[in-house]
Amino acid sequence: MRRLLLILALITALGSRAQLIDSIGLFLTEPPRPIVRLDLKGSFVSNHNVRLIGLKLGLEHARRFQYGLGYSFLYSPVVRDRNVEGEGLRSSRLRLGYAHVYTDYAFYQRGPWEVHIPVQLGFGSGSVVYEDATGRTRKLLRSGLILYEPSMTVQYRFLKFFGVGAGWGFRLVIRTGDDLGERLTAPIYSLGVRIFFGDLYKELQE
Fold first, then answer.
1. Which CATH number fits the domain that encloses residue 80?
2. Considering 20, 25, 177, 180, which has the largest number of Cβ atoms within 10 A of its Cβ?
């Protein structure tokens, strides 16, 4: 864990270098194109291996720098029995959702290979819900959440409109309300195939 935090700290420090700022400023002079991305990530909540799904809408400049807005939510069930006052032991489920702003900088591009540094800052809420004796869903715990997610991804592009990639990083979560009884701060990872719909659409228009 300490090694991972050190690596992420070095990545974050890279963002403060004047050379990087100058490069991004140069890319921003290029005309933007709209980006729509389905974001699938793996992570951990306490001892549960979970999946999070998100949608991102943004702009991309010079195929190197992206920024925009998105929304992500916990897709996998995180269920455990909890003692509810006045009702005894009940099966409960964690809910998690948050909006976020993001940036994505491709600091390395050579041939079909790309290496990116995506960073997200999110604001949302988490809650623990259960069903009472009448079958109604009740909230047992609730908290506002602030999330910071720096990571790194490596991508290999093939067949012009497709790519395969892998990524890793860390999710830091700060609560503003109840203790939800789950460990939300954890590593994040991704592995999958990407379809470049923007390039495909442009090709079909020509």
1. 2.40.160.20
2. 180
Of residues 140, 147, 103, the one with CA closest to residue 125: 147
DSSP symbols for 139-195: EEEEEEEEEEEEEEEEEEEETTTEEEEEEEEEEEEEESS---SS---EEEEEEEEEE
Q: What is the pLDDT of residues 65-115, one digit of tens each?
A: 999 999 999 999 999 999 998 888 999 999 999 999 999 999 899 989 999
90/87 Cα distance (integer angstroms): 8
Comparing CA positions, the residue from 79, 83, 37, 78 lying closest to residue 56 is: 37
- Total domains present in the chain: 1
Query: Whole-model pTM?
Result: 0.82
Amino acid at 197: F
Residue 51 tokens read as 């999946």
Note down the domain range covering 96.
2-205
Identity of residue 106: A
